[in-house]
Design brief:
The structure holds two protein chains of two kinds. By secondary structure, chain A is α/β, with parallel strands linked by helices. Chain A has helices at residues 3-17, 42-45, 57-69, 88-98, 151-160, 216-230, 247-250, 270-282, 304-310, 314-326; strands spanning 21-25, 50-52, 73-77, 109-116, 141-144, 165-170, 185-190, 193-198, 207-210, 234-239, 241-243, 258-265, 291-295. Chain B is built from twelve helices and ten strands. Chain B has a single domain (4-252, 264-295), classed as 3-Layer(aba) Sandwich (Rossmann fold).
Chain lengths: 327, 307
């Protein structure tokens, strides 16, 4: 099963299980079924609760908040995650605030889905990874789709928090297989964390790479080339929830060299938050500071060769791990 | 559709209505006095001159209806709950505060009442609530209070489009007091509220009167229609008597005089002196007692600041 199908099944499951669940967004109705086909079939099965909206990201996010405010479960799709900037006020100043600014806890069951990231030639305004702009907002949780985390369970975890969540879905993942890794690797779960090791590696890894789900395949490719070419043994850690991050859950899996890889462009990144959390906990156990890998400080170009120059790829991660190990 | 209501002479109100009007008036005056003495933290926006709007709407709204208020919301809250203690405690950060003192003057949530401090933000949320009501509780509506300045925000138009498109039970109450903070409406709004409502095919009603009885009579059927037929914009031509917040009134003296001439308070006292003075004195004393009692309370506590 591909990741998009898993997510589609998760949304079907949610609408099946929860009679108060709504899914809303632009162009999500059948037969079109959403720009990335993630909502395919939903409006045919649940016509009253799957709602196509005008091109109004702010309003559709506000409507989702209004539905959540009246006790419903609301999943809003932002067609391209870049456009979530148009819903920033609804998320930052309404939904996230409402959870606690009225004194007591006001639970809101809502998820805003954001197809995210580059690598498909969509250009500067349709390729960004905007996670970092939402880090550190009280009352707002950030999750990222991963090939190792079943989306039905992730949806349930987000809704269980009772506060608005933004779900970042790296578009590259949609067509990737769900839950599978190359026989070279061993995939296991430790709570929220997916842990991928080199199979049959007896010793502790030389380096641990922490990355959100969208980076998983690029990190795995780098792990393979590092092993084959350099005999470097790495471990990948993929948390489902990016913020607030359960840093303590990472600790048992760390090595003395740690890299955080993400697709965001440079500056104020999620990785710098992760590094800060780890430095505060295990500074004396690290050989050097946590090394950050991210895309260049540039807009994301359209032409493939230029886009490749800006975005983090396998080789960026490979190089960063080698540099980190050299100290 | 635009209809105009006008009324210079104020008809006699039931004691209960007059008490509520005066409660809001004296509450707001008391706030300005407390601020002036440095006894309150932060800022506030009083609805002096506009008290009759929520008082007129009060019997037209039921307990199942949601009310969304804005930064200038004390009157909306008092008309809904008649709870000057809880509101003042909220503003003063004292025990018994509606929201623990976290939200303060412009962020209040209680039952089906919610206010927020960002212009236009509540319109899409209210549309979502109206969508829920239309399906789950037909006959109930969502009422949103906005001002003339709010029409500068794009969120208003996105929400009006949805409300008209989905025929949502959304009552938009525009308190057009002629000034957005310091900017005269004529300097910030091209065209009219009526024209903007018409662009979405949403009925618009213009209320010039400050007579609570007259306004109710004119709105009763229109508001009832919202519950079945869809959105309505009711625009009150009103006057902000006081400053935007505490002492920031840069309006020319003429503009302030016009606001004062339109004030219901003096006119009602003139038309119905016996009833007015009896109740005015009582409410003034009541508000003073509320202020004294609340000020003496211990500080409010925030039970759960972090998740």
């Amino acid at each position: 099963m591909r990741v998009a199908e898993n997510l589609n099944a998760a949304l079907h499951g949610l609408l099946d299980d929860d009679p108060t669940a709504y899914v809303l967004g632009e162009d999500i109705l059948d037969p079109y079924g959403g720009a990335f086909k993630v909502t395919k079939g939903l409006s045919s099965r649940f016509p009253g609760r799957v709602i196509g909206t005008p091109i109004s990201e702010g309003a559709l996010t506000g409507v989702a908040a209004g539905l959540a405010l009246t006790g419903n479960t609301a999943v809003a799709e932002i067609m391209f995650g870049d456009f979530v900037s148009l819903a920033f006020d609804q998320l930052c100043n309404f939904a996230a605030k409402s959870v606690s600014m009225y004194g007591g806890r006001l639970p809101l069951r809502m998820v805003v889905r954001c197809p995210t990231g580059g690598g498909r030639g969509y250009g500067p305004t349709h390729s960004q990874s905007l996670q970092k702009h939402f880090v550190g907002m009280p009352g707002l949780s950030l999750y990222e789709m991963s090939p190792f985390h079943d989306n039905r369970a992730v949806l349930a975890a987000m809704l269980e928090r009772g506060e608005p969540c933004v779900f970042f879905e790296d578009k590259i993942l949609y067509t990737r297989p769900m839950g599978q890794v190359d026989p070279l690797f061993l995939l296991r779960r430790d709570g929220d964390l997916a842990v991928v090791d080199i199979r049959d590696s007896a010793e502790r890894p030389d380096c641990v790479v922490i990355a959100p789900g969208g980076m998983a395949h690029r990190v795995l490719a780098a792990m393979r080339s590092l092993l084959v070419e350099q005999e470097i043994c790495t471990r990948l850690l993929v948390p489902s929830r990016l913020y607030p991050l359960d840093a303590d859950a990472l600790l048992p899996h760390l090595a003395d060299v740690v890299v955080v890889a993400e697709e965001s462009t440079a500056g104020g990144t999620w990785g710098s938050e992760v590094a800060h959390l780890l430095h505060a906990r295990v500074w004396e156990r690290l050989r050097g500071p946590v090394r950050l890998v991210h895309s260049r400080a540039a807009v994301i170009p359209t032409a493939a060769h230029l886009e490749n120059e800006v975005l983090v790829g396998e080789s960026t991660i490979h190089r960063a791990v080698r540099e980190a190990l050299r100290g | 559709m635009t209809e105009t209501l006008d009324g210079l002479r104020l008809s006699r109100l039931a004691d209960d209505d007059l008490e509520l009007l005066l409660l809001v008036r004296h509450f707001e005056l008391k706030l300005l006095e407390l601020y002036g003495r440095g006894e309150l933290n932060g800022t506030t926006h009083t609805c002096l001159g506009q008290e009759y709007v929520p008082v007129a709407l009060r019997p037209l709204l039921g307990p199942a209806d949601h009310v969304f208020s804005n930064h200038r919301g004390h009157g909306h809250y008092l008309a809904r709950f008649r709870d000057p203690h809880g509101l003042l405690a909220e503003i003063m950060g004292r025990q018994g505060a509606v929201c623990g003192g976290v939200g303060g003057s412009q962020h209040i949530h209680r039952d089906r009442y919610l206010s927020t401090g960002v212009q236009g933000e509540s319109m899409p949320v209210a549309a979502g609530v109206a969508l829920h009501l239309k399906r789950a509780e037909p006959g109930a509506l969502a009422c949103v209070h906005i001002g003339d300045g709010t029409w500068g925000e794009g969120a208003v138009y996105e929400a009006l489009n949805l409300a008209a498109l989905w025929r949502l039970p959304l009552l938009v109450v525009v308190e057009n007091n002629g000034v957005a903070q310091s900017t005269p409406t004529a300097s910030q709004m091209a065209g009219t509220v009526a024209g903007r409502a018409a662009a979405f095919g949403i009925p618009h009603l213009l209320v010039v009167s400050t007579d609570v009885n007259e306004i109710r009579l004119a709105l009763e059927e229109e508001v009832a229609r919202v519950r079945e037929a869809g959105p309505l914009v009711v625009e009150f031509v009103t006057h902000r008597l006081g400053p935007h917040s505490k002492g920031d009134d840069a309006r020319p003296a003429d503009a302030v005089r016009v606001a004062r001439d339109n004030d219901w308070y003096g006119r009602y006292a003139h038309h119905h002196p016996g009833q007015f003075h009896r109740i005015d004195d009582a409410v003034r004393a009541e508000v003073q007692a509320v202020a004294d009692e609340v000020a003496a309370r211990p500080l409010s506590r925030w039970e759960a600041p972090c998740a």
